[in-house]
Amino acid sequence: MKKLARYIIIWWKLTLGTSQIAFQSRFGALLFLLGKLLRYIFFLLFLVLLINRAKIIAGYTFLEIVLFYATFNFLDTLSQFFFRNVYRFRQQILNGYFDNLLLKPLPSLFHPLFGGSDMLDLVILFFATGFIFYAGLHSGQVTPLHIALYILLLLNGFVITLGLHIIILGIGILSTAIDNTVMLYRDLTQMGRLPIEIYQEPLRGLITFVIPVGIMMTYPVRAMLGLLSPTGVIIALFFGVILFLSSLWFWRYALRHYTSASN
After folding, report:
1. For residue 263, is it within any domain?
2. What is the 8-class DSSP label of residue 200?
3. How far apart (Å, rounded) are the C-alpha atoms in residues 77 and 124?
4. pLDDT per position in the chain (263 positions), as tens?
5. Domain that holds residue 231
């Protein structure tokens, strides 16, 4: 527990440092936050117009579609909040800062992942949580078991995003092509804003089990709505564990092949 508390204190200090940089221009920070909110609101308006036309999308009502979208935003923003330093990692490799980090008495993954969070993301997390509560409570017969499975698979989705970000960091060490990899990841996860049932096979299977957008973003909602079988829950959890363990192995492999900036 003492070690965990120490890590939390270090993360908090790093977050305060990055927040001070972000708020050097308050007007710029306000514009950035406004852009995030407008993007969130405009897609909700798009969903309203879409449902008014089609009434039901892939068998889901408007509030159920909102639940999918809010869950996607919650997981997507949560991963950005905690793993924001992944977006800065390429520069840290190129300027040799990562060499210095490896000499610190911290796990090699700590700073690349948790090197400072963006406090502006908390606003989007607040909105997403509110929509999840509202849409979840008004989406049919939601039982305590369904809620428990939703939370469990939400945590599993976060573990999957953690594993994918570790893999991105490993790719950054091996090739320094981390920026393009992050953008590819971001583009692919956007497919989870709506239920995967809107996609035809084989694309649906591809974004569920090969690129695990479906397991990350849509399985929690399907569990809350009572549409996910016990087998589906077990498969999702198994996939999350395997991906996370594989990402740790890949990170260690990348570190063994790391060539420092001094070389």
Report:
1. no
2. P
3. 7
4. 777 788 788 888 888 777 666 556 565 556 666 766 777 676 667 666 666 665 666 678 888 888 888 898 899 889 888 888 888 888 888 887 888 888 878 888 888 888 877 777 787 888 888 888 888 777 767 888 999 999 999 999 999 999 999 999 998 888 877 777 888 888 888 888 888 887 777 877 888 777 888 899 899 999 998 888 899 899 999 999 999 999 999 999 999 888 765 55
5. 2-256
| CA count, 13 A, side-chain hemisphere, 249 | 6
User: Rounded to an integer, what distance in angstroms lies between the CA atom of residue 152 and that of residue 147?
Assistant: 9
User: Is position 167 within any domain?
Assistant: yes
Number of domains in the chain: 1
Structure tokens at 75: 């997981």
Asked whether residue 79 is domain-assigned, the answer is yes
Task: Pick the closest to residue 261 from 98, 27, 134 (CA basis).
Answer: 98
Distance in angstroms (rounded) separating the CA atoms of residues 2 and 230: 37
Which of 228, 47, 33 is closest to 135 using CA atoms? 47
* Within-domain flag for 218: yes
- Do residues 58 and 195 lie in contact, with contact meaning Cβ atoms separated by under 8 Å? yes
Cα 169 to Cα 145: distance, rounded to the nearest angstrom: 36
Q: Which residues contact 217 (CB under 8 A, 6 or more apart)?
A: 68, 71, 72, 75, 76, 157, 189, 192, 193
Residue-wise pLDDT tens digits, 154-197: 999 999 999 999 999 998 888 877 777 888 888 888 888 888 88
